[in-house]
Amino acid sequence: MLLHLFFLLSLFLTFIDNGSAGITSTFVRTKFPAVDIPLENEVLAVPKGYNAPQQVHITQGDYDGKAVIISWVTTDEPGSSQVQYGLSEGKYDFTVEGTLTNYTFYKYKSGYIHQCLVTGIQHDTKYYYEIGNGDSARKFWFETPPKVDPDASYKFGIIGDLGQTYNSLSTIQHYMQSGAKSVLFVGDLSYADRYQYNDVGVRWDTFGRLIEQSAAYQPWIWSAGNHEIDYFPYMGEVVPFRSFLNRYPTPYKASKSSNPLWYAIRRASAHIIVLSSYSPFVKYTPQWHWLKQEFKKVNREKTPWLIVLMHVPIYNSNEAHFMEGESMRSAYERWFVKYKVDVIFAGHVHAYERSYRISNIHYNVSGGDAYPVPDKRAPIYITVGDGGNSEGLASRFRDPQPEYSAFREASYGHSTLEIKNRTHAFYHWNRNDDGNKVTTDSFTLQNQYWGSGRRRRKLNKNHLNSVISERPSTVWF
Ligand SMILES: [Fe+2]
């Protein structure tokens, strides 16, 4: 009974607390400098053996989670693009043939990039797979998600602006302790574009080797940031996103997208929309047309959780990249509110920030209210651009903290979103606290579609009871 009362009280506070003063954490971390891990460090090492597969990573390969794309690189010779896989280690009943590509960047020649689409696999199943030949063959595994279902529980991680420093490594290692099953990556992967000439390609390779410890075993859902653009006129490299698109395929065709940089997937009880901050997105562009149709396809009866990923945050009170999200806000915020998006994750700003539910859809250039206001229909905006790259932290927040900003801190870290059922999810932001993982910002997220009024009352009480005993001890609304 007491638990029930506590839970109802916290739900009440959710509604009345919008707009209350937010928190600016003053925590300052000290341990690791923001420098890239040296090439000779063992975490970037090339796997032993002639032509051994390296930079192995997987991503979802279809709309509903019954396919994966497995990617890897060989360097001595093309070798095999086959994936052998099955339900037990070393016993592979299935073989599928992939494709091979490579590219040059300035005078750098990439390795042989293999991409293999594995289809027709079962939901909620662990698969073992092997790639490469002879003594150099390497073995991995992955788990498929539960089938798309409104009450499927699932734990996502959220990482952005990762890079390849010791802080990046901390983030990856802390994330791997979280028990999350898939990464929602909000752009800026390798920061290889901070290098010049052939080192750009070299640092894309080292990033691939750094993330393999996680990305070979579970899908990372990619969105592109500015550090994927790789625009180097003085090197003769002017075609945007070449390295990223050659190395990190996405299942864009499954959602009828015309471009790998924006697409959608459904996974367990979530519909995830990936947008590109650095592709045309204003009215009548391909991305705009696609998003308009994709929002219409969202069925909250099947996938209650509607999550959007983008690189540039719409709401950001850091001095870094302040207002850069305004153009996309003006293009899409109405849809985010109309379709009751639950949460929008972004990166770009190298700090952590969470907003209340707010919108600014009444602003217009000839009048109206030009300030964001509390709006129960609006998404929560979360910036997780704090993966730990070599540019360091964005430590100057604007003062005073805007009313829409609930919590902000300039530290490295990652987030997790643990969906329990159609009504509730637990969210955590985990700071890299000088090498230790410390949960710093947590709250219970109520689903925007099922969590409100009439629909919630229709639900069986069991949906609420099931989460009461598991909710986090620290709750921010
Ligand atoms: Fe960025």
Automatic annotation (TrEMBL):
The keyword Cell cycle does not apply. Its EC number is 3.1.3.2. Its main location: secreted. Keywords: Disulfide bond, Glycoprotein, Hydrolase, Iron, Metal-binding, Secreted, Signal, Zinc. InterPro entries: Calcineurin-like_PHP, Metallo-depent_PP-like, MPP_PAP, PAPs-like, PAPs_C, PAPs_N, Purple_acid_Pase-like_N. It catalyses: a phosphate monoester + H2O = an alcohol + phosphate. One of its GO terms (cellular component) is extracellular region. GO terms for molecular function: acid phosphatase activity; metal ion binding. Gene3D superfamilies: 3.60.21.10, Purple acid phosphatase-like, N-terminal. The keyword Signal applies. Its cofactor is Fe cation; Zn(2+); Mn(2+); Cu(2+). Residues 53-144 form the Purple acid phosphatase N-terminal domain. It holds the Pfam family Metallophos_C. It is an enzyme of class 3 (hydrolase). Residues 155-352 form the Calcineurin-like phosphoesterase domain. It is found in: Secreted. Residues 1-21 form the signal peptide. Residues 378-438 form the Purple acid phosphatase C-terminal domain. Belongs to the metallophosphoesterase superfamily. Purple acid phosphatase family. Homodimer; disulfide-linked. This is Purple acid phosphatase. It comes from Anisodus tanguticus.
